[in-house]
Design a protein that fits this description.
Structural class: alpha/beta
Largest sheet: 7 strands, mixed
Mean pLDDT: 89
Order of helices and strands: HHHHHEHEHEEEHEHEHHEEHH
Radius of gyration: 25 Å
Helix content: 25-40%
Number of strands: 9
Strand content: 5-15%
Length: 336
């Protein structure tokens, strides 16, 4: 330690001494992260940052899809405002939710996705997540940790996740960071501006068994082009024959047709056909609860014992990541 610090000094003099580089060993002055490079802005959220910097009075934000009024200002649904008021009036506590989240919310999420009575809730491992992104990340971690041919097994490989080409920009990052191998399958034909269904089927038929295939349940992001009902039925057969794992991402239920049941057709058809699907739900768009980060991850299993085991692992994954999900948005959805 410097001699300056061993000698009693008046407080102003002590402050000056501590501010001097000579007061500390040189090795402590080295910045640990001095060589960290500047990273690029997120491809989607970076648009919002540019929007905020723009001073043009007629600017429009075409980045994140969010409700706006006629003046381009954020719009909160009247039903959400009404539900929020009742939540506040109830004067509920602010205690932590369990790691798996609010069970009432989870049941509502299952009913909205699969229909009331569509699945036996006892056979579903379900956790409340940090919106759809959190659900996808948890799904990726679960797939990676319990891959059927895990790298730690002799001759094993990492879990493969196939994404449609194109897909939401964040999908690739999420599954790569979950230590999955990310591949793609044909989906959109830019020439015809429609789904290239034949190429899609061709790529999926060539996939290895146990491959997880991400499917946009409705309102495909970013193209807006969906399969028709007959094509979904045929695709379900392909998944069965090739032993592929359906991983549904449902962020826009209700946005395609205006009917949440119609928009859940693909998911419910796969369940009807016997698939044990994984489902990632976001309530940011259809409830307008963007900043509240409300979502759910559901994994269909064969029996209650399997569901309990899978849910226990999801909680083990979630605990060191974010401990437990937020409270307020789930309460609003429960009210609605």
């Amino acid at each position: 330690m410097s001699a300056l610090l061993r000698t009693p000094l008046p407080l102003p003099a002590l402050r000056r001494a501590l501010a001097s580089p000579a007061a500390f060993p040189r090795r402590l002055a080295t910045a640990r992260f001095r060589d960290v490079p500047q990273g690029p802005e997120d491809a989607i959220l970076g648009i919002t940052l540019a929007f905020n910097r723009d001073t043009a009075p007629t600017k429009l934000n075409l980045g994140v899809g969010a409700y706006r009024d006629d003046h381009g200002r954020p719009f909160v649904l009247p039903s959400v405002r009404a539900a929020e008021r009742t939540v506040v009036e109830d004067e509920l506590n602010m205690e932590y939710l369990p790691v798996a989240g609010d069970r009432g919310f989870a049941d509502h999420a299952l009913d909205m996705a699969f229909g009331k009575g569509g699945v036996d809730h006892k056979n579903v491992a379900v956790v409340q997540t940090l919106s759809g992104t959190g659900a996808l990340r948890l799904a990726g971690e679960l797939l990676s940790r319990f891959a059927p041919n895990h790298p730690e097994k002799e001759g094993g490989d990492k879990q493969v996740v196939m994404l449609p080409k194109p897909s939401w920009a964040n999908h690739k990052n999420i599954f790569q960071d979950s230590d999955c191998v990310v591949k793609s399958y044909a989906y959109y034909d830019p020439v015809t501006k429609s789904v290239d269904y034949d190429a899609c089927v061709r790529d999926l038929e060539a996939a290895k068994p146990e491959t997880a295939v991400l499917l946009h349940a409705c309102a495909h992001n970013p193209t807006g082009c969906d399969l028709n009902q007959d094509q979904w039925k045929e695709l379900s057969t392909v998944f069965k024959e090739k032993k592929l794992l359906p991983l549904f991402d449902m962020a826009y239920q209700g946005f395609t047709s205006g009917d949440t049941d119609i928009d859940a057709f693909a998911l419910r058809q796969f369940v009807k056909d016997g698939h044990k699907v994984m489902l990632c739900q976001s309530f940011s768009k259809n409830f307008g609860l963007y900043g509240h980060r409300v979502g759910a991850l559901s994994v269909l299993t064969e029996n209650p014992e399997q569901a309990k085991a899978v849910e226990s692992q999801l909680k083990i994954l979630a605990r060191p990541m974010y401990s437990n999900p937020p409270l307020h948005g789930a309460r609003i959805i429960n009210k609605i």
